[in-house]
Amino acid sequence: MKKSLSAYSEAATKEELERHIMVVWVDNEAGVLARVSGLFSGRGYNIESLTVAQVDEEKNISRITIVTNGTNSVIEQIKAQLLKLIPVYKVASFPVDDKSIFRELALIKVIADKKNLEKAKEICNSYKAQYLDTTSTSFIVEFHSTRREIDSFIKELKPYGIASVARTGPLAMAKGAEITETNKGKVI
Amino acid sequence: MSQITGAEIVFKAFADHGVEYIFGYPGGAILPLYDELRNHKKIKHILVRHEQGAGHAAEGYARSSGKPGVVLVTSGPGATNMVTALTDAYMDSIPLVCVTGQVPTHLIGTDAFQECDTTGITRPCTKHNWLVKNIKDLPIIMHKAFHIATSGRPGPVLVDIPKDIQFQKTEYVKKEDVIQKINKVVTEVESSELDKIVDLIYKSKKPIIYSGGGVVNSGDKASALLHDLVRMTGFPITSTLQGLGAFPGDDQQFLGMLGMHGTYEANNAMHDCDLMINIGARFDDRITGKIDKFSPGSKKIHIDIDPSSINKIIKVDHAIVGDVENVLNKLITVFKKKYPNFKNSNKENISEWWKQINKWREKKCLSFVQGKKTIKPQYAIERLYELTKGQDTFITTEVGQHQMWAAQYYKFNKPKRWMTSGGLGTMGFGLPAAIGVQLANPGKLVVDVAGEASILMNIQELSTAVQYRLPVKIFIINNQYMGMVRQWQELLHEKNYAESYTEALPDFVKLAEAYGAVGIRATTPDELDIKIKQMIKSDKPVLFDCVVDRVENCFPMIPSGKAHNEMILSPEDEKETKISKAGKTLV
């Protein structure tokens, strides 16, 4: 985060920046993603990645996972602001540490000659990536893991002809038996 | 049950929610709704001259009555002209329900005539908004709209209704059926927190209560409870701009407004206190001044209905999320139980503190010298107050020096008598707001304290006041400058008065007459009282041109980036004050 230019808040932000995952449960309705992402841009918060999909068809609820960074007080403020949005049910946030599970997905297309294709496949096999499509001059693999491992996988593969990479942001869940209470801290 | 049209549904919902007045302006995409107006004689439509005026008038109505203001405008420019008023209401937590027309559903997204993405544009300036794509949703959305606008921390909501939906038919849904289903969350006040707060109050030697607009919004009972708390503790109290009137302005325990143009005693008390009790205020930057020098030695308690206000700007020691009325009620009950007869035993505890406060008071930070020739703006407000305090008077303002002078020199003894644009600072707010206030309070004296620059931003609404025979008084403090801009240029930009002087002002007396209102001008201190009395007596809208000292500045002032105890009290102080580079960048 940039240092605040405002002298009102000078020296007020000396806490350390941390990467956090925000999980937001929302009504799956038109415009809800714009409300959430607009809140981040409007208030100057950073979105590193954002993943969204419906998770409860019956109740029509979507789960949004956002990676952001900020000091502890900024993270608390983001949570409070998110809870003010009418279609938001509940919000959870956790720092990126070993108390939570993170998974990202990548699709990678490699186009190369026979020799390089063979070498690329060796790397894919060692990472246990899944083949989704193969031709004589190309293949597509699916790989899901942590961000760091996907990064190193891509790095190794790169010299042999990566044509296209598609990646999701992380999905996250807290370890253990705890879940986030519905509506905690929400006041309409 | 019979099926009714979208237009009928909207009006049925208005009736169900007790709407008396709609402020609006017709246009193509909202015509079916206007057509329906004739079937609802109990709902009166006020035709404004510009949609922004409708929004501010609805705000004035809401702020002075405690009920939501309702606005009806068309698509495209009708909706975009509402954006300022919606943002204004959002910043100051004013309940508005704005219904906008939209191009028919099959034309949405085609850049049709008078089409705009209304819900997209207004998303960040409303508490919530809806684009109605299915007629079946309309009754439910209408009820939700009123509920959301008025519950919790109030705010504006917007319902965008495509023209074809206004014609389509469906069954109406009863208000109760919708409201019951809304997942309401009641926050419980934790008694352990209350206990700790009560003990802090008991022990404090240098306390201060700092109250805000949340007290006014919570309702008249909250103001009464605040009064009880202040009396019960014997503590000094100060108020934000929005909170004025929640506690009587002429009371001995009241230190005046705090913040950038607050009193010397209020700001110094905030700086030196050992216990700060924030009731319904949000530590706005006009209040805090420099954050890291804000009240360094105090324990801070914050009562607010909005959880996101807690620890947003100032870290507090104890926070209670809840409605002011509810929280104060519990706090006072617990306190009385634990420490009966506190006030008498406490007198000694805080007597030194009051001595110190009275020393600050002796500075007489609001004093000014009124000469014989030109009217000082402060004197104009002071006379207005003296001549109107005998009756129940409602004051609205525009934005700038006149607004701050009104806040400093007019003493409000009741809540909902003071309507000003605090958060957004919207020039042009006061006149349309006064129209809304007058409608909500027929027969009462309503004065818009204005500046000659601000009033020109929505002067067209004078025509509205004349049409509906609303005898609002517009008291223009005319110094020919955008006074606050000039003051900042003096302080921060070496008196380079870039574009802050208005070369060609209209003759306000003739302007009033052209609109069919009454024009009055005062230019000397001698004639001021007679002219003000003349204004009050008139049963018509009056445009009062009060010609004042052109270069008077608004003091006291906490300059940019300074702390509460670094105030400028006079032009002499101003010369000695150096503003840092960082301070210069502030607004």
Structural class of chain B: alpha/beta
What oligomeric state best describes the polypeptide chains here? heterodimer
Strand order of the largest sheet of chain B: 3-2-4-5-7-6
Distance N to C terminus of chain B: 57 Å
* Rounded Rg of chain B: 25 Å
Task: Give the helix proportion of chain A (percent range).
Answer: 25-40%
* Spans of at least 5 consecutive residues with low confidence of chain B: none
Average the pLDDT over all residues of chain B and give the rounded result.
95
Which chains make the largest contact?
A: A-B, 29 and 40 residues
Tag the structure with descriptive keywords.
heterodimer, A: 188 residues, alpha+beta, 5-stranded antiparallel sheet, 4-stranded antiparallel sheet, 9 strands, elongated, disordered N terminus, B: 587 residues, alpha/beta, 6-stranded parallel sheet, 27 helices, 20 strands, 40% helix
What do you see in this structure?
The complex is a heterodimer of chains A (188) and B (587). Chain A is of the alpha+beta class and 188 residues long. Chain A has 4 helices and 9 strands; from the N terminus they run βαββαββαββαββ. Chain A is elongated, with a radius of gyration of 20 Å. By secondary structure, chain B is an alpha/beta fold. Helices cover 40% and strands 16% of the residues of chain B. In chain B, the strands form 4 sheets. In chain B, strands 3-2-4-5-7-6 form a 6-stranded parallel sheet, with helices on both faces. Chain B is globular, with a radius of gyration of 25 Å. Classes of the chains: A alpha+beta (188), B alpha/beta (587). Chain A binds chain B through residues 5-12, 30-31, 34-35, 38-39, 42, 73, 76-77, 80-81, 83-86, 183, 185-188, and chain B through 119-120, 123-124, 127-128, 131, 133, 148, 151-153, 182-185, 187, 285, 288-292, 305-308, 310-313, 315, 321, 560-561, 580, 582-583, 585-586.
